[in-house]
């Protein structure tokens, strides 16, 4: 199938792009992508620790999981669209043609609560038998848990027709920068700090946000309402039990 495989793009800090097309058998592609990125992206140093420690430039386990999920669950009936991975200094985005297979919803993916349902069960079976995928629907949970282990913002699913897009953030600052210039200019310094906190969780309450940000309840309400108006959060419930969930 011409639409099988994956397109890779690294966008270097100096603006130069590097591309590669992966047209090998699907089960080989996650390993090939990981090796390509390791060869191209040097390790960086974590200078926030008392003793400097070398750490990978990317969360490779999460990248492998994201690529495998895209290849397994994409809609191969969409001709002319390939899976894609784009790496920048702040994010890794993986695009998979086709929306979530019904009855799974985008909201369930965003909440990491989607049940296991494969669009391509035969392909899923092969990946699982090779130890490259879970058949119990644990892939979403592993992405969430690994982000928490690495102290990274939670991954985010969005829909950009005809692609389901998974974004992995490489830092809290990167999650804020990824909001886009229009949104960033509307946020003050305190709100940007607030979003860095929210990027690491699926949602919050007014009281929790006020406590974590060390602001008054009134300021917390103003920040959260602003995020809702910008389409970054959605309000669920009313009164003291109101929750603000990431979109």
Pick out its properties.
single chain, alpha+beta, 247 residues
Describe the structure.
β1 and β2 form a beta hairpin. This protein has 247 residues and is an alpha+beta fold. Helices cover 38% and strands 21% of the residues. The protein has a six-stranded mixed β-sheet with strand order 2-1-5-6-8-7. A three-stranded antiparallel β-sheet has the order 9-11-10.
Please outline the helices and strands.
Elements: E1 6-11, E2 17-22, H1 29-40, E3 44-46, E4 53-55, H2 60-73, E5 83-87, E6 91-97, H3 106-110, H4 121-129, H5 139-149, E7 156-160, E8 163-169, H6 172-177, H7 181-185, H8 189-198, E9 203-204, H9 206-213, H10 217-229, E10 233-236, E11 243-246
Parallel strand pairs: 1-5
Antiparallel strand pairs: 1-2, 3-4, 5-6, 6-8, 7-8, 9-11, 10-11
Helix pairs in contact: 1-2, 2-5, 9-10
In angstroms, what separates the terminal alpha carbons? 34 Å
Helix content: 25-40%
Order of helices and strands: EEHEEHEEHHHEEHHHEHHEE
pLDDT averaged over residues: 90
Per DSSP E runs of 2 or more residues, the count of β-strands stands at 11
Offer a concise description of the structure:
The chain has helices at 29-40, 60-73, 106-110, 121-129, 139-149, 172-177, 181-185, 189-198, 206-213, 217-229, and strands spanning 6-11, 17-22, 44-46, 53-55, 83-87, 91-97, 156-160, 163-169, 203-204, 233-236, 243-246.
């Amino acid at each position: 199938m011409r639409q099988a495989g994956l397109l890779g793009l690294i966008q270097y800090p100096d603006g130069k792009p590097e591309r590669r097309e992966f047209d090998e058998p699907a089960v080989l592609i996650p390993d090939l992508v990981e090796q390509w990125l390791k060869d191209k992206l040097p390790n960086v140093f974590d200078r926030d620790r008392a003793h400097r420690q070398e750490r990978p430039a990317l969360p490779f386990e999460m990248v492998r999981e994201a690529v495998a999920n895209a290849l397994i669950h994409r809609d191969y009936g969409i001709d002319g669209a390939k899976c894609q991975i784009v790496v920048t200094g702040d994010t890794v985005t993986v695009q998979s043609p086709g929306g979530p297979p019904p009855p799974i919803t985008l909201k369930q993916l965003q909440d990491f609560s989607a049940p296991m349902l494969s669009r391509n069960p035969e392909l899923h079976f092969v990946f699982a038998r090779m130890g490259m995928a879970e058949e119990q629907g644990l892939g979403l949970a592993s992405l969430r848990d690994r982000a928490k282990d690495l102290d990274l913002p939670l991954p985010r699913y969005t829909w950009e027709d005809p692609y389901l897009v998974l974004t992995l953030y490489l830092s809290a600052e990167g999650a804020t920068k990824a909001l886009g210039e229009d949104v960033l200019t509307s946020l003050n310094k305190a709100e940007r700090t607030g979003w860095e906190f929210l990027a690491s969780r699926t949602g919050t309450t007014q009281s929790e946000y006020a406590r974590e940000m060390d602001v008054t309840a009134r300021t917390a309400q103003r920040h959260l309402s602003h995020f809702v108006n910008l389409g970054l959060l959605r309000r669920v419930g009313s009164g003291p039990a109101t929750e603000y969930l990431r979109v």
